[in-house]
Recover the amino acids of this structure.
């Protein structure tokens, strides 16, 4: 199966999972020239900026390892652009998250990982 198709399915599962927790999805694939945030959602006065990784269990390392310093800096830069574009979000608490979608289509949610 193509990587793009797998990624889109993973993002759909992640979006549905967040909605089941009570999140309101504000943006999906919020892109700027310097980076992207896969899902931006709102729940309980917290703005959740989430990276989605659809990952095989036997890859040899954990999806958290993909959130290296460069990726984190890019996500932060996109976040700061977002709040400059939408000043109403400025007062909200922010959480940077990882949603790991397994081969079995299980969702593992890691909140406030950086």
């Amino acid at each position: 199966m193509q990587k793009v198709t797998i990624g889109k399915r993973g993002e759909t599962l992640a979006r549905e999972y967040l909605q089941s927790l009570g999140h309101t999805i504000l943006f999906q694939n919020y892109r700027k020239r310097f980076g992207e945030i896969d899902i931006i959602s709102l729940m309980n006065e917290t703005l959740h900026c989430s990276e989605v990784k659809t990952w095989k269990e036997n890859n040899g390392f954990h999806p958290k390892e993909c959130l290296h310093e460069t990726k984190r800096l890019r996500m932060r830069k996109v976040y700061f652009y977002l709040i400059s574009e939408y000043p109403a979000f400025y007062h909200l608490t922010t959480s940077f998250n990882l949603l790991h979608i397994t081969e079995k289509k299980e969702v593992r949610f890691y909140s406030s990982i950086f």
